[in-house]
Design a protein that fits this description.
Layout: E1 16-17, H1 22-29, H2 46-66, E2 69-73, H3 81-85, H4 91-112, E3 119-125, H5 140-155, E4 161-167, H6 170-182, E5 187-191, H7 205-216, E6 222-226, E7 246-251, H8 258-263, H9 272-283, E8 291-294, H10 300-310, H11 312-315
Length: about 325
């Protein structure tokens, strides 16, 4: 049975880490061919499953060593119908691999969770289109129908929650939030922004969060920002009431724009120490920022530095992964 579906522990003041840039780690560090950035497809082979599981074990170990919480985000960002069909998945096979991914997260939790390091299993989903370009915009109703299949697969598993990552327009976020509510699943909505702090549609992050809350009667458990560097949006955090709804951050290592990252042939892994300091500074401006991880270009080094900067007391004396 789901362990935390009815009471998410990261809604407290305790810091919860999560992982870094799974896909960029696989492509640039592990030299794995990853068509469509679809990490879930590796679960089809024993070797691939082993590689994915070791990846999560590394991060879960960091959290346990620090006595911090951890959110296990399943490797299913691309495991929705349109993307999966391009890899040859039918509806039944896709639902099964989404549930299999959750099963792996549960096994990692069973090995690493302690009383001081609660570990939440999250079913991760991504946009129907490209994360950097909105493309054809769905209505909220279309988005609800489209994402319901993946959300229902997570509902029928031991997933505690849903995390919708790299969303770039409001209607898709609204549809996902409504689908999750219909399935009885708590959901975190994570927007991505450009270098000016606005969504790719031009909407401000503030307006996006307020719009989703208004259209869904505040259905999301909380909001996040991912796939953007802190310098892209920190100036917009003015202490207004909406910022209290932002509880999670998975920043890029690089300060490059989305267009620059899309065209890059190299990995810009930035400065892990500086990124950790940026997170610490953001926590003074985002009063409820407790879920901390990385996105493109980040790896365990960055998450270590985030932990060191944001919770130095629990991190003291435990530098085992840098």
């Amino acid at each position: 049975m789901p362990r935390y579906r009815n009471q998410l522990p990261q809604l407290s003041d305790k810091i919860f880490l999560t992982d870094g840039g799974l896909e960029t780690t696989l492509v640039f560090h592990d030299k794995i061919d990853l068509p469509l950035f679809a990490a879930f497809d590796l679960l089809r082979s024993k070797e691939g499953r082993g590689r994915i599981e070791r990846y999560y074990e590394l991060y879960a170990g960091i959290a346990r060593a620090r006595g911090l919480g951890f959110v296990l985000e399943s490797p299913t960002w691309r495991a929705n119908p349109a993307w999966a069909a391009r890899l040859g998945y039918g509806r039944g096979a896709l639902a099964e691999i989404n549930r299999e991914a959750i099963g792996m997260m549960v096994r990692v939790r069973d090995r690493f969770e302690t009383e001081s390091s609660p570990m939440v299993v999250s079913g991760c989903l991504g946009p129907r289109g490209d994360g950097y370009e909105p493309g054809r915009l769905m209505s909220a109703r279309e988005a609800q129908a489209y994402h319901s299949e993946q959300i229902e697969a997570f509902r029928d598993s031991e997933a505690d929650m849903i995390s919708a990552m790299t969303l770039n327009y409001v209607e898709e976020a609204v549809g996902i939030a409504q689908a999750a509510r219909s399935a009885g699943m708590p959901v975190a909505i994570s927007f991505t922004v450009e270098t000016d702090g606005r969504l790719p549609t031009g909407m401000t992050l503030e307006d996006a969060i307020l719009s989703v809350d208004r259209e869904t009667a505040r259905a999301p458990a909380y909001y996040m920002v991912n796939c953007a560097h802190p310098t892209h949006f920190e100036a917009l955090l003015d202490g207004s009431e909406w910022t209290a709804r932002v509880r999670g951050l998975r920043a890029n290592a690089s300060k490059r724009s989305h267009a620059e990252l899309d065209a890059a042939l190299d990995l810009d892994d930035g400065d892990p120490v500086d990124l950790g300091r940026s997170y610490r500074a953001l926590r003074t401006r985002l009063p409820r920022l407790t879920v901390l991880g990385g996105c493109c270009g980040t790896d365990h080094r960055h998450v270590e530095q985030i932990a060191l900067s944001c919770d130095p007391v629990s991190a003291e004396g435990n530098l085992v992964f840098v």
